[in-house]
Design brief:
- With about 625 residues, the protein is of the alpha+beta class.
- The chain is built from 25 helices and 17 strands.
- The strands form four sheets. The chain has a six-stranded mixed beta sheet.
- Strand 7 and strand 8 (about 130-135) form a beta hairpin.
- The chain starts with 8 loop residues before the first strand and ends in a 10-residue tail after the last helix.
Amino acid sequence: MSGGYCNKVAWINLTDKTIYNEPLDEKLKERYVGGRGFITRWLVNMVPTEVKPLDPENVLVFATGPLTGTNAPTSSRIEIGAIAPETGIISTGSAGGSFGTKLKRAGLDALVISGCSESPVYILVKDGSIEIKDAGQYWGKDVFETDYAIKVDNRESRLSIASIGQAGENEVFVTTIMIDRVRSAGRGGLGAVMGSKNLKAIAVLGSGSIPIHDPLAFWKECEDIQKAAVKKFFVNRWKFGTYAALARYNKVGALATYNSQKSAYEYIDQIAGDYYNENFKIGMRACVGCPMPCWTTYTIKSGEFKGYYGEEVTASTFKELGARCGLHEMDAIVKAHDDLNRFGMDTISAPATIAFAMECFQHGIITKVDTDGLDLTWGNRDTIIRLIEQMATKTGFGAKLGRGVRVCAREWGNEAENYALHVKGMETVGTDPRGQPSWGLAYATSSRGACHMRAYGNFEYGGMDDASMIRISGTTEIGKRFGTTGKGYANAFLEDIHSFGDSLGLCKLMTRAELGFPEALIGILNAATGANYTADSLYNAGERISNLERISNLQRGITPEDDTLPERYLKEPVPEGPAEGKVCELEPMLNEYYERRDWSWQDGYPSKTKLQQVGLDREGYDIK
């Protein structure tokens, strides 16, 4: 392939401080595309199943795709992955900002980091030059302080920085890696992996260009996709970012409230988008090269936190810290959100764990004796903010919560397990699948645990036209919210297109419907790289990545029995509101999903036919 890639990977060993560059393998590009595909292939090859997530032998990868850093809309993404502490399986996450673009412009497709430094270090990448530098002066600083200090010390404000806060340093499980201060990647505890390596940050800057095979054809493809994306998404993103759906979730009974004891929040008007926009929002921003601003800047104008400035709230901010934890004071919600970013914590898993503890407190499973005197009643703003700090610094009762709901539930006893909302160790998102069933299937089958972003379906609320619904499932029945027909097929299809979308370097906010279908992307990909992908071959690459992730999970102890949901969603009907009486009817959707995947119910593995189709053997090795 003559374009799209820099054709260079940096291999960095922090134990012996060795760095070497290696050409990017042509077969790897053809079969795994980039980003998430590269990471999955390398982790399966390099990390034996007996290696624990926080061992030096775990490998942390930052990888771009062939479209990253180009003029393709939403193409600033960086994919980050490792074996995750919360789940013990591969987790990869995608982040925007400018890190991916600047890494590519520095002449690198990926950084593959192994080993563990004896003392804190950071990695500086500038136009192909790579240095491992002392980070002792940054250790103990939060993400914002670290970002600022590294830029000052290097006299370079244009650096894009991936860093961890105190939570990652302390190897807290509910952590992420932060990009450009407020964008995060890697649910499952990838911040803890970075901390376990004594790696505080990676700073990158590049001034080079990215080769394009056919610039004129590529420009035309970019224009066409951008026009379609702006027409479909721009107005809503500009007004509401990603939090427009909050009121909809509540209206239909899909908003996890009080740890999903309910699915609609009585204080929705105080945490919804209109209230935030009127009282807190001051501006909109976008990632590099994106025509659709989706993250906001805000300030707190009165009260305890008057004068506070922050940025980049999302739907999860209001779902997790708001309805899930029973908090309805917006100033406290955005302050807590900012604290999570500064400490480098997962803005889904950390509040979800707090909500779990609050329900355990409600039922008397834990008391103030256990919480060191903290009052864990619902919506206690002081306690929520205090617990976030304790979790990050690994002090007090928060030190226990920093390990996530699965570990806490096992320690607190059988009754606590009833309230531990996770799949494969990763906390569920604040969208209740009893009100949005397709997301229940997505949580159950996601390759990294309870994640909505692996499939990210939007067909139950008019996000797809009839032709698109038929394309992904063979039927328009998937548009019926409480139906099950076709949703297993749709879920598998969406997982596969996001497998290759994450590998290309594109954002899911653009590719979650028809703009992410393989037929929509082969033109821009082929023009960039000079490859000859067809819609079928690109889809096959996504399916290969999905099946390799599956094989890796099975090798690490996952079984078909783990493809399920917490019992609350399966057996406990919603007690009131728009989804009253509903449970998530997982079984028929999951049966259809396994059928579409051609996976065995006995051992979970792909059939011989499926393995041959995607070019893998049962051990996950590539075959011709």
